[in-house]
Structure formats: C-alpha cells, structure tokens
Amino acid sequence: MIIEAKQVDYIRGDSSILKNINWTVKEHEHWAVLGLNGSGKTTLLNMINGYIFPSNGSLKVLGKTFGKYDLRELRKIIGWVSSSLQERLYGKETALEIVLSGLFGSIGLVVP
After folding, report:
1. Which strands make up the sheet holding 3-12, listed edge to edge?
2. Which residues contact 36 (CB under 8 A, 6 or more apart)?
3. For residue range 11-61, what is the model confidence (pLDDT) as tens digits?
C-alpha cells in the first residue's frame, strides 16, 4: 500500500479542513486530486508528506505509520517538491537547491 488513510480529519482552530477521509493508493495506481480552491487538496498532500499531522484517524505512507516512524526519513523516500512549499522556502534559494530539497527531504537546503 502506498497511501492508507483511515478516518482522517484535519482541524485548524474551529474549522474542519478535512473530515473523515478514507483513501488507499496501491502500487502502480495513478491518482489526481481535484477540487475547488480551499477544498483541502494542499492540506491533504502536506499531510501525506508529513508536513502536518492528522487531528484524528490513522495515516500510513509506504507502509510507515505516522507517529511510529521518523518522518524525516520518510520524506527522503518520497522526494516531494511542490509549489505549495513556497511559503516555507527561503527567498535566496536557487531552483537547484529547491529540487535537491526533495532528495534530502528538507526545506532550506544549503548546497556547497
């Protein structure tokens, strides 16, 4: 199983951003996440990549259960780079540094 979300919620303040998400992605499947602005697409992807945590429910990515595995190591396996990370990047980073951040599962990579 690549992604396994069971009854996942994400609550920010008084707002329920994601509610009761049940989703599995198996090896060799291809998915598209579609929705209106503000519908929770980026929140879901940030959660799958370990940048935010579910308020409720359980989440496994690549067989690793969130809360029981070092997500810094998981991010290195995922190697995700997205424009949604823009707010977390430093203004002086080059395109190369941003792309390499996916390889190292970090934000703010400094390349010698």
Report:
1. 15-25, 3-12, 56-61, 64-65
2. none
3. 999 999 999 999 999 999 999 999 999 999 989 988 998 888 999 999 999
pTM for this prediction: 0.69
HSE, CB side, 13 Å, CA atoms: give it for residue 46.
17
Pseudo-torsion of CA 64, 66, 68, 72, nearest 10°?
80
Q: Do the strands 56-61 and 15-25 form a parallel or antiparallel pair, or are they unpaired?
A: unpaired
Stronger pLDDT, 109 or 59, i.e. the higher one: 59
Query: 23-32 — which CB contacts under 8 Å span 24+ positions?
Result: 25/1, 26/1, 26/2, 27/1, 27/2, 29/2
Query: What gap in Å lies between CA 24 and CA 27, rounded to an integer?
Result: 10
Q: Which residues contact 67 (CB under 8 A, 6 or more apart)?
A: 53
